[in-house]
Write a structure and sequence with these properties.
Family: Belongs to the tRNA nucleotidyltransferase/poly(A) polymerase family.
Organism: Bombella pluederhausensis
CATH superfamily of one domain: Beta Polymerase, domain 2
Strand order of the largest sheet: 3-4-5-2-1-8-9
Number of strands: 9
Structural class: alpha+beta
Pfam family, one: PolyA_pol
Largest sheet: 7 strands, mixed
Helix content: 40-55%
Order of helices and strands: HEHEHEEEEEHEEHHHHHHHHHHHHHHHHH
Bound molecules: adenosine-5'-triphosphate, magnesium ion
CATH class of one domain: Alpha Beta
InterPro entries: Bact_CCA-adding_enz_type3_sf, NT_sf, PolA_pol_head_dom, PolyA_RNA-bd
Distance between the termini: 77 Å
Radius of gyration: 28 Å
Keywords: Magnesium, Metal-binding, Nucleotide-binding, Nucleotidyltransferase, RNA-binding, Transferase, tRNA processing
Amino acid sequence: AALSDIPGHTGLDRIWKALPQARLVGGCVRDLLCGREVHDLDLASPFPPEDAQKRLEQAGAKVIPTGLEHGTITAVIDHHPYEITTLRRDVSTDGRHAVVAWTDDWKEDAQRRDFTINAMSLDQDGQLYDYFGGLDDLRAGHVRFVGQAAQRIEEDALRCLRFFRFFARYGQGEPDKGACQAIARLKDMMTRLSVERVAMELLKILSGPQLLRTLELMEETGSLAVLLPHHAPLSALKRLLACGDPSEPLHRLAVLYPPGGADGQGLAEIGAYLKLSNESRAVLAALAKPKPELAATLDDDGLRRVLFQQDRSILLLWSWLVQARELGRPDAGWDELRQRLEALEQPVFPLAGRDLIVLGVKPGPEMGQWLKKVQHWWLEQGCRPDAEACRDWLTGQLSPR
Ligand code: ATP
Ligand code: MG
């Protein structure tokens, strides 16, 4: 991939004018090299943050001191943000907080990064600096720690999760043995991480193309049980993924927690346990509810009735979960049901209160009752009657012959 294809590359010229020694670092270099979409342009420079800020402002950039204590400022050029961090080396770390000092040594900065594929940098002439064989590892799908895996995990246990995240995305072949052994030994350190950070990493792991292999790895190292107690056996997941992969991380999480899971730790509860957003929790809770009204044998009238009362995306997903659980049973019909469900128009009840007023119904509790009645009739007809048909039916009910 070329730098000139990336949104925001134009602002780089201004940054390099102000900070000629600055280099692109971390994820954007990695993703540029393997042709993946680049989303953030992160840079590093040997200038202390205040110096860098002054120089950028002189070059006409707006600068926001987003994390001065970590040496990070954000330059905004043509509405595009660039994170620029001063080169750092570790002074000490207690497994949660690192104490850092500025340096002008690029290799020292690369050394404190987690994996070889994340430790490369690229300067304005397109020169790649790859101190630990990151490019070869990237090509081979090797996720390898910079330095000793165990030591790097002891410094920061989040790196266990990051290992799985990057393996899920880039991993090929056998995972790094040393890393897996270190994770297996130190996995309990992850219990000290905040739930929010764990959840964020988990959702990233769940969006990776190598999900199944990664989850197996997490199971083999004992990490999965630490992170997601009471998860369903992976054999179930394997079967589930075989009948159509939803690819949404949240939906993949749902696969890991079939409804009716163990005491207070099932699909309905996992959203709260991981402190996910209310929106995500609502999706998981809706998926956890049984939907006896949805059956593969439903005709279109029945399907419309269900569709009127339930969100289509939840129904599709739920049918997929059920199908997966029933996998092996011949001819369950769920594939066809899903196609029909997608093709059906969203039913909208065609009458409102004002339509009833025209027919002589007085506003108040009586109107509510009549509305309910006519809607009930409309549902029984498979949501097919239009406004006129509903009015006719209602007229007949209001003045029985
Ligand atoms: P993504 O594309 O998912 O954002 P990324 O590589 O940009 O991947 P970030 O979490 O944004 O990941 O981190 C940016 C860079 O900072 C990484 O590439 C890595 O060099 C470094 N880094 C981030 N977190 C850690 C950590 N816990 N330990 C060591 N280095 C880290
Ligand atoms: Mg990033």
